[in-house]
Every structure is written in structure tokens, then in C-alpha cells.
Amino acid sequence: MAEYATTKEPTEEQTLATDAYALTYQGYEYVCREIKQNKAELAAIQTLLSEEQQKLAAIQTLVSDAEAAFASKMGESKMLEDDLLAHKLAMDKLRNSGKVLFAGGLEFHDGKYVKSSDFHQKPVTPDPLESSTALAAGGGAKSPPSEKCDAGTPSVKEVNEDSPYTQMQLRDRRTFTTVKEVIESLVYSYEDSQSTQMRLRDGTTFTNPGGRYCTGIAYINATVLFQGSIYDFSDDVPGIFDTDGANLAEQIVSFYNDGDKLQKLRVMAACFLPINRDAKSKGRNGDLPNVTYFLTLFLLNHGIDFVVVDPKHNVTDKDVRIINVSKVLRDLKDRNLEIRTAFEKTTDGRGLSTVIYQRGNGHPSDKTCDQIKKATGLPRDDIMHTILVPGKYENGLFGGNCYTEFSKSVASVLHQPSIIDEWVRRSNKSSIEEMFTVLDPFSGYALYAAVSHKGYGINPDYMSILAFYQGKYTPLKMSSIGEH
After folding, report:
1. Residue 382: CB partners within 8 Å, gap ≥ 6?
2. What is the pTM of this model?
3. Are the C-beta atoms of residues 318 and 222 closer than 8 Å to each other?
4. CB 288 within 8 A of CB 279
5. DSSP 3-state assignment of 350?
6. Mean pLDDT computed over every residue of the chain
């Protein structure tokens, strides 16, 4: 009898185990495939990220190069504009004189220029220009610094080849005996401010038209300038801070009224603005905007010629940029731009109280608004914004460009007070009860804030500077510097 092998049927438990293994294996294979695919995708993403990072680096380089090129072109454009104005003035003066212009064969006859093939320049003896011309032409001898400029009479060729920033800006051919006279004879630049869209507390808006303002900026030959007395206010900073006084303004007054300091200031031809050398040597902000503001008022109140030398120049520079602050004040006064609204306290709530915020981009943070409110009691709606090119101590992509479009920001600062009268009227107010100003850390802007406040005739008892120290603002009355 044959025996047949029989297959034993698997138990249910074995079947379940086998199925579970198969499923687990399938899951394992699936996970392996997913991991492999994810690794491939991750590698692709990493490659793409690397490429995008390279593109971003290239874009950042382009932005940096573009900003540098823009700053360079703006500076070049400004100098060319100054050149154009200077040359036009020189050409008009020479044309009106009816004399030979250049040693190149041009003469002015019967209202037009004509060529002269057999032209030979004749000796000309112009009015002496002392060293303001001779030294600028490089012909003057090196001499110890003195206020008087002594030099011989230059030839016509020497006059025409002089620095365009110096000689072609001279308004007339006359004798100059001091550096101060040369400074007064320069042609100073003007800048247009932009129209401003203003928003009142009730949400209504109005447009304040822009204006044209003298910036007091000009260029002068370095050799001529530094023959005058140049005062460096940074030397006085430690002494000012050590002087007794209830506040910074009183310290400045007490310091310069002591001894013969005022007399020394009266004879200076120009000066450097004060900086905190100790702070700067430690890598901190060295500018002193509050000191600059009150010092500017002090000098202008005493009728002292106030001319600032731009510190951003090299000893090898032929020409130096200066700011004639006294010239800016005279221009504002000559145009009769004073604020017409009365400065007085009211009992009917119709007096205007406002904060002029000139710091950074003109938009205070919530924290800053809270700090301002603690110092003044005024909320965000009472803050008037002044949009400037961010000061050199501002951070961010566009921070630190204050020198690039300095003149535009200057025009904005000088234009700011012209808005007040219309602001009062449209706010249904009858007077100005109190005004506060927050200065930018850049002293160059503080300089113009002071001259604008004085030039527009702001009552010093109703204007205060909000000085920021140790996390809070403290009002310093404009009147603390006194009147003269």
C-alpha cells in the first residue's frame, strides 16, 4: 500500500505571522524608497539653495556697488552743479567787463564772442586779490598761520586757472585782507525741499508746498582757509561738562562767559564742531547734537561769525567744504520767514502742543512714543515727522547715508518751521502753547535745527529740546541759552 506525503495546513497563527511579515517587509521597502527619494530631493534642494545663496551674494554685491556708485555720482553731480554756477558767474562778470577772457583766442565784442587768429594776450593788471587768489593758484609761499592774507597781484592766466571752488565763486574782483572776507565773498548753494503731505489728528490731510533754502555750503581753497584762525570746539567739551550749571545750556553759557573765551570766538575764521573724543576713541558715537544745538544758538545770539569746516577732508585736499551758518540765518531773516502764530498759553484748549521728531527716518517706534509721552504728556498723534536721510549712526540697509544727500535733509530741516502756521490753522488752534524737538544723533542736522528755530523767530520760552539720556527724554528749554 502506497503512502502519500501530505501537506500540513498552516495554522491560523502561522498565516497571520506570515502575512504580518510580508506587510512589514513591504513597509520596510517603501520606507527605504522614500528615504532614498528624500535624500535625492534634499540633495537637489541643497544644490538649489547653494545656487540661490550665490545669487543673493551677487545681488548684495550689486546693491553695495550700486549704493557706492550712487553716492559717488551724487557727490560728483553736486560738485558739477557748483562748478556750473561758479563758471557762469565768472563768465558773466568777465563778459560784462568787455575784456579779454582767455589766452585761447576769444574776445568779447559787440555782444558776442569772436575768434582772433593773431590773438596775443596783452598784459593786464587786475585789482589785487591778495593771498585769496595768489595762494589758491599755488604761488604763495608757505607761511605761519595768520588771519591776514598777504600776496602779490596775480596775472589774468593765474586767475582763470585757479580752483573753481574758490576763485570762480568770488562775486567781485576786489582786495581781500582776511580769510573772513574771502569766506563772505563765496557763492553758497541752495537746495529745494520737497512738498510735504501732512495728516491732522482727525485724519484729514493737506499738502505743504516745498521751498528753496540757502544751505550755507561752499568750497574754499584749503591753503587760504587754514591761514585763518580755526577753532576746534572738541577741545572745550571736557571743560563744558565740568562747568557748574542747572543744565547743558547753562553750562555752555557759563563756560564761554568766563575770561576771554568770547573774544577768541569772535576772531575765529572757522571751526570744527564739538565731538566727544573719549567716546569716539572707544568706538562709540562721538557726535554731540545737543551741545551743537545750544552752542549754535549761543554763537548766533552773540553775533559771532559761525562757519563750520567739514571734518571729512584729507590734508592733501585742495578744496574744503564749509558751512556758513551765519549766512543761512541771514537768508532766513532777509526772506522774513518768521512764524506768524502767537506763542502763548491758553485756557480754552486751543493752544497747539507738538513734538517735531527729526531722528532717523522720522518715524518713532512705539517704545520711543511712550518715552516721549512720559516726558511731554503728548501722544503719538501730536508728533510731527521730519523725514531725513538716516543719520550716520542709524542701522540698516540705508542707514549711515547722511553725507550722500546731506543738502536734501538740510532743506527739510530748514523747511519744517514753515509748516507750523498752516498746521495751527487747520488744527483749529489759536496759538502755539509748547513745542518740543527730538534731534538726530548726527550733529550736522542739529546745527540746522538751531539756525531754523532762530531764523523763524520761534519764542525760546516755548521750544524745548528733548535730550535722551539713560533711557528717558528730558526737556531742555531753548531759552536756557539766553538772548543777546
Report:
1. 201, 353, 354, 355
2. 0.65
3. yes
4. no
5. coil
6. 77
